[in-house]
Structures are given as structure tokens and as C-alpha cells.
Specification:
Blueprint: H1 3-12, H2 19-25, H3 29-39, E1 47-56, E2 64-72, E3 77-83, H4 90-105, E4 118-124, E5 135-138, E6 140-141, E7 148-149, E8 153-159, H5 167-176, H6 186-197, H7 199-229, H8 233-241, H9 243-253
Helix pairs in contact: 1-7, 6-7, 7-9, 8-9
């Protein structure tokens, strides 16, 4: 099988939970509006703008690339993230992404009362809080009184693992099951069908995957050059056999290559 054929077969396996497909689907603001109406439980919610792979710059530290940044009709900025692997402290990731988003959208010199509201929607394949629920809202609570307080930052966690016949659970089934489509979510189902099963959609996904494969080879080559230059031959050999160690070295030696 040729490399192009292999890439095409891999593209057919993608679903909305995969960031490659999700970012492509998020080019359509009506798709984002549909899923946010379900997740945020607001049937009248309007999405004015959707930007996939929005870059939040941090000149003094790690910048981020959000899977999708949306602007709701009330001005709230929403970061939607999809995550398959339970391999990091994702609550801190949400905290960091929200902070970078806030600093990038707040105009210099404004009063803090004018800082825009931010919501992070984190969609995962795992039940982060292990409460056997598909949807969680994390609030700021005054410990002494139990009162919920609002500083304009909202955290919403959704997972595809828990099945309970709720609307959110049905939507998440479309996100992860190859053959799942649902007339309740026409924008999501139609977009998924396009990128999984139509010639034009599959070609678009293959182009992205081919580009990423080339970028992956390029950063590995950069890493190898650095290791050889610094005579780290043992690390070079181990990295060739251990992908996790290779990624660790890339984060250490090529931090500018890291993409969220």
C-alpha cells in the first residue's frame, strides 16, 4: 500500500473527537453553534464567529493554539478543546488556555470590569472527575459560605465515556462512533459525513495529514541535528526507539515546535 493510500485509510478513521477533524469542522460557525447550544444548554445561543486553530501569543512563556475560538452573541469568548488522551493535568491546561485567551482579547488600559467573559469547553474521551456524568460545570465557591461567585471565567467539561441517554451523551456518540449520525444534530452529522465519506472531504483531510507528517519529519530532523551537535548519542539512539522519550526531548530542546 502506498503512503498516500495509508494516509487515506487513516483519514477515514477520524471522528470529531480527533483534533484534526474537529478543527476542520470548526471552520463552520453553525457547527460550533449547534454543539455549544447543547453543551451550554442554551437553545438560543448565537455564535458570531468561529476561528479554528486560533493562536494565543505569550511573549514571556508558552503560547497556545486553541482547537477553536468562538464569539457568542453576548460577547463571551469560548475556547473549545477536544482531547483523547488522559496524559496531562488538563485542569491546569484549561486554566492556562483561559488566561492566555483573556490576555490576548483584553484591550490594554481597560478597567478590569471590562475584561471580556471567557468560557473553556473541554471535550474528552475520559471522565475527568469520575462522577459517572457526561457533563460537569466547575464553579468558583467561597469556601466559608458555599456561595458561588463569578469572575467571568467559566469551565465546562464534557466526556464521551459516560452514556446516559441524555442529549449531551447522544451528541458525544456522534463525536466518537464511526457510524453514528443523529438527526438531532444535523450540522454535526452532515459535517462529519463530509469529512469521513465524501471525496472532497477526504481529500481535504488527507492534505492536512500529509502536511503534518512532513512537519513531524522536519522537527524530528531538527532534534537529531541538535543531539548530534551536542554529542548526545545515547539520547539519539533511545529517541529512535522510544516515541515518548522523543517527545520529551522535543519539548526540552525545541519548545517553539510544541503545538497544543
Amino acid at each position: 500500500m502506498s503512503n498516500k493510500a495509508k494516509i487515506r485509510e487513516e483519514a477515514k478513521k477520524l471522528n470529531p473527537i480527533d483534533d484534526l477533524m474537529f478543527r476542520k469542522m470548526a471552520e463552520d460557525k453553525e457547527f460550533c453553534q449547534e454543539i455549544l447550544r447543547v453543551i451550554l444548554e442554551d437553545n438560543k445561543l448565537i455564535v458570531l464567529e468561529s476561528i479554528p486553530q486560533w493562536t494565543g501569543a505569550n511573549l514571556q512563556g508558552r503560547s497556545v493554539i486553541l482547537d477553536a475560538k468562538c464569539i457568542k452573541g453576548n460577547g463571551t469568548q469560548v475556547d473549545i478543546e477536544v482531547q483523547k488522551a488522559d496524559d496531562d493535568d488538563h485542569q491546569r491546561r484549561v486554566r492556562y488556555n483561559g488566561a492566555i485567551l483573556t490576555t490576548n482579547i483584553a484591550d490594554p488600559g481597560i478597567k478590569f470590569e471590562k475584561v471580556p467573559n471567557v468560557c473553556v469547553v473541554f471535550i474528552s474521551k475520559f471522565d475527568m472527575f469520575e462522577g459517572n456524568l457526561p457533563l460537569y460545570h466547575v464553579d468558583r465557591v467561597v469556601r466559608e459560605t458555599g456561595k458561588v461567585v463569578n469572575n467571568g471565567f467559566e469551565e465546562v467539561y464534557v466526556n464521551t465515556k459516560i452514556k446516559n441517554n441524555s442529549e449531551i451523551s447522544e451528541l458525544m456518540e456522534v463525536f466518537v462512533n464511526d457510524n453514528a449520525y443523529n438527526s438531532k444534530f444535523p450540522k454535526t452529522s452532515d459535517s462529519k459525513h463530509r469529512y469521513k465519506e465524501t471525496e472532497g472531504g477526504l481529500n481535504a483531510m488527507c492534505e492536512i495529514m500529509e502536511r503534518l507528517t512532513a512537519e513531524e519529519r522536519n522537527r524530528i530532523n531538527k532534534l537529531n541535528v541538535i543531539l548530534i551537535k551536542n554529542k548526545r548519542y545515547d539520547d539519539l539512539q533511545r529517541a529512535a526507539e522510544d516515541h515518548e522519550f522523543q517527545e520529551k526531548l522535543i519539548k526540552e530542546l525545541l519548545p517553539e515546535e510544541i503545538v497544543d
